[in-house]
Amino acid sequence: MITEPIYLDHQATTPLDERVLEAMLPYLTHEYGNPSSPHIYGQAAARAVHSARRRVADLIGATNELEIVFTSGATEADQLAIVGSALAARPRGGHLVTTVIEHKAVLAACQRLIDHNGYTCTRVGVDRHGRVHPADIAAALTPHTVLVSVMHANNEIGTLQQLSAIAEITAPRGIVLHTDAAQSIGYGLLDIAELGIDLASMSAHKLHGPKGIGALYIRGGTRITAQQTGGGQERGLRAGTPNVPAIVGFGAAAHLITADAVPPPSRVRALRDRLQDRLLVAIPGASVNGHPHRRLPGNLSLTLPGIEAADLLGRLPDIAASTGSACNTGSGDPSDVLTAIGLTRAQARATLRLSLGRTTTETDIDRAAHLIARTAHTMAAEPAHMA
Ligand SMILES: Cc1ncc(COP(=O)(O)O)c(C=O)c1O
After folding, report:
1. d(CA 132, CA 125)
2. Per-residue pLDDT tens digits for 332-350
3. Which CATH architecture has domain 18-258?
4. Which CATH architecture has domain 6-14+263-382?
């Protein structure tokens, strides 16, 4: 019997839910209107976009759906949030605060403001679990700080940040708080009101929706300078004919979560713990990265001492996972996130990111644990690894 490779890379992307595809299909075929058109075809498309906007707002607890602006993904949402809010606040100051573990989309947006607009930026460090201490954010603020950007959940080690404590620091000072929530919304973990966030970036393909669609939540009253101008769509904040089928898909994916039509996060967590326990027992010296409890249910970042993670995965065509340093592939540099939590370069290179999702089964876990442990033992016994 031929078995399919085991997909353990849900933090990179997730498979499209068939119910999402079904919701999208009419808008790829006969419901092809442009939502800006006043006629019947346009009105049908506009209604679909409105309903999807409401569904995405519901997923994050936003009361007003107009606070959702659709973008091409979290990368564009990060750019709009950071560059757009910093430029709008320029008369008040030109200092940004972010962290050393952000996604490249955030860091690149900050760098753009530094290189082209004369901003300065402080990157706050993290502890060994990858947590940012709110006191360190407070200490980094200056009278010129206009924006703080701290991701909700990390894409490599899964650690969740204490955003409400950070909001308590930024809000009274009138500093805009942005979070990249691309990794956490699929678990229904982002509650805008509870966390006190002004701007939040999202991406549909991390929650079994289509690729190339995301959104930025913009709290009412937060000033933003549009980064893509033209026909005035999305309340003038993101010009371009909306990608109606993808927006409908994002809305459908969000609705499946709020309607409890998907397995609960506790199921994924139990499978992750099973995989973690098995590998820790089978591979002496293996250690888990990220916060022991406050991390994404499906994340397992594992350092296997003396083993090159890329080499191990290269020998395991039956497992689709990533090295901890996947984001730096090509550069040969170890992951900034892993070095930020104190791993050496060698430990960072010995780190695997196994990320589980809704479609992961117990059989997948048991098979993956067996294959990874067996390959790690083989590699450890080879002369190159015994030095
Ligand atoms: C934390 C984080 N931010 C941003 C992105 C980019 O998202 P998108 O692919 O929607 O541009 C990702 C996806 O890899 C991510 O994990």
Report:
1. 7
2. 678 999 999 999 999 999 9
3. 3-Layer(aba) Sandwich (3.40)
4. Alpha-Beta Complex (3.90)
